[in-house]
Amino acid sequence: MAVLPEPVQNLINAFERLPGIGPKSASRLAFYLLRSQDDISQKLAEALLALKSSTSFCSVCYNITLSSRNVCEICSDSGRDASSICVVEEPLDVLVLERTGGFQGLYHVLHGVLSPIEGIGPADLKIAALMERIKDGKVREVIVATNPSMEGDATALYLRQQILPLGIRVTRLARGLPVGSDLEYADQNTLLRALAGRQELI
Ligand SMILES: [Zn+2]
Question: Which residues line ion ligand 1, judged by CB < 5 Å?
Fold first, then answer.
């Protein structure tokens, strides 16, 4: 078998580390770039470099924001309903929920879920920051929108335990989202229904 030149093999190896990309797709992408116009590779390289250097996390909700701003656009929008906070696992979930147009409150990104098997405890997530946030007296409802998985459910129950004693309503997105799946794969109508039919976590 012919050995690929190192730069090509390096790119294939890098692509293979991405989620959802197997060896075949990785090779296809690398060879596509190899024969395509230079500006595609150039733009891709610039975008990749800027991804880390020009973004950071919002100091309030931990969603992704431009590194030039401390607080993200959603948190600084005075038109949003500050009495309601939707808790999600990842920044991508914010995007997915925003696309439904069905939620006008604010978000809080945990950056993961509780997982004893993987050794992820409350201190590894942005839970302390959430607790600080909701103590300001403005928040009346926390909607837990973690994924409908075992870890997502466990995280929801843990949050309920922490938040209910503060006299704040805790709800969970309605069932109807496929169990074990990610929010990002749900279609907009399913998500809108899940938001509208959210239930009290009791
Ligand atoms: Zn924010």
Answer: 58, 60-61, 63, 72, 75
Number of domains in the chain: 2
What DSSP state is assigned to residue 120?
Answer: B
Q: What is the pLDDT of residues 27-42, one digit of tens each?
A: 999 999 999 988 899 9
95 and 178 in a common domain = yes
Q: What predicted TM-score, i.e. pTM, was given to this entire model?
A: 0.80
The closest of 45, 40, 44, 74 to 57, measured between CA atoms, is 74
Q: What is the Cα–Cα distance from 7 to 13, expressed in whole angstroms?
A: 10
pLDDT in tens, 177-196: 666 667 777 777 778 878 87
- Residue 97 — φ and ψ, nearest 5°? -70, -35
Q: Quick one: 86 and 132 in the same domain?
A: yes
Q: How far apart are CA 151 and CA 156, in angstroms?
A: 9
Q: Tell me the residue type at 16.
A: E
